[in-house]
Amino acid sequence: MTDPMILSGPANDTDSLRQTLIAGSLQVQQQIIPQLADLGNEGLSVLMEFLLKRRDNPATWIDGKAYQVLYNSDALPAKEFLLSCFPEGIVPLKSECGINYNPLQQLLAAQDFQAADRVTIQKMCELAGPTAVQRKWLYFTEVENAPAVDLQTINYLWLVHSEGKFGFSVQREIWLSLGKNWDSFWPKIGWKNGNNWTRYPNGFTWDLSAPRGHLPLSNQLRGVRVFASLLSHPAWAKSATN
Predict the structure, then answer these.
(1) What is the pTM of this model?
(2) Domains in the chain and their CATH numbers?
(3) Which end of the chain has fewer CB atoms at under 10 Å, N or C?
């Protein structure tokens, strides 16, 4: 399949939504995408067209929302379109270490944030090597030595598939805005309430109603020093998604 089939939508509603999706603000686009999803194949065709026109530019979380609708659809044209045009997903899966981030992209596209969080720490351990994979957690020195490209890929996946709410760079932005004050940071991202730490897993919020920066759960990397190393990593100085 060389050119994906974009189904024409004769309905005025579809044409109006198409124009609004192209020209609207982020907030308007965010509202339009679910409306298109409810229109069946005609709405899906608009989302295919939208993604195809934007394919040469870096994906944003709006692209992520459109992609997620197609990814989670049972419609054959949507499946064929994604296979043809986005076989790896909406985010390029770059890695200096040959690590496969496709499982993480699939879980995030499906909005399975809890499973994606578990895979994130697994991939972080893979970056550090077999010993870290076996122990299932990281030393701060291993975080410091993690390749910037890989950390950017993980972060970019979280950003694009969470409406820009989740990711290391979001956590870093909040941390810096609070003067690197951990006591202020933990409750801000929903990891602590008063003197009580949020209990894993049921205390955490595994959907987009969570506070900004709530995920991924880098507290599982063990200790403030490890998390500080992650948020201070040179990857964020180089990252266009920061």
Answers:
(1) 0.91
(2) 12-85 (1.25.40.620), 102-238 (1.10.10.1770)
(3) N
